[in-house]
Amino acid sequence: MNDVDILAKKIWDYLHTNHKIQKADCILVFGSEDILPAYRGCDLFFEGYAPIIIFSGNNKNEEIITRPEAEIYRDIALKKGVPAKSIFIENKSFNTGQNTIFSKELIEKENLPHRKIIVVQKPYMERRTYATFKKFWAKPEIFVTSPQINYEEYIKNNPCDSKEVIISRIVGTLIRMREYPSLGFQIKQEIGDDVWVAGQELIRLGYDKYILKNNISLGEKISINTK
Q1: pLDDT tens digit string along 119-136?
Q2: Which residue(s) pair with 144 in the sheet?
Q3: Could you give the CA distance from residue 7 to residue 223 in angstroms, rounded to a whole number?
Q4: Cβ pair 74, 39 in contact under 8 A
Q5: Residue 94 is part of a domain; what is its CATH number?
Q6: Which of 29, 129, 131, 212 is the most core-located residue (most Cβ within 10 A)?
């Protein structure tokens, strides 16, 4: 593993919540161009963790997917054998906050049980998903999980993004973990000095595509020499 991978894996490890999932009322899968979370949700369903799956997401990348993510995930679940009556979709949301808000609206509208919810995301989005969910819907007990794949496997086998893009997304997620609480987008999560320094070093090395650099005030806060 080279120096870049060592830095990126340090952030990757931090961005995992390491929740021990429990049986819940429903499984809520946040969508993206990565289809692995859909399969993780199905596996949890068949393992008996919850009797309902909700797929959330409308974001579309025309080069990869041409329909709402929630609909693509639903089709995967149906092919895997999940009964249609056990599947609900929320296909309006375009970001993690909307995933939470619009899924809450769907759950309440359909009167679905939700005291405990398993939330499924991409691996490096676990912690940000937890912090966002608790900001916009604090009441349910949630367990955040993701496809059971390590950093090396995810980089090697990802069909959507190159290694450079994935590492840049990991860095961008870390920056959002620091900046978004002050903007009202998520609850605060502590970031260790070693994790933050790893992110700063990756920015210095050019992995800066997703660090909110178009926002001047944020750009000042996340400059290379600012901790």
Answers
A1: 999 999 999 999 999 999
A2: 119
A3: 18
A4: no
A5: 3.40.50.620
A6: 29
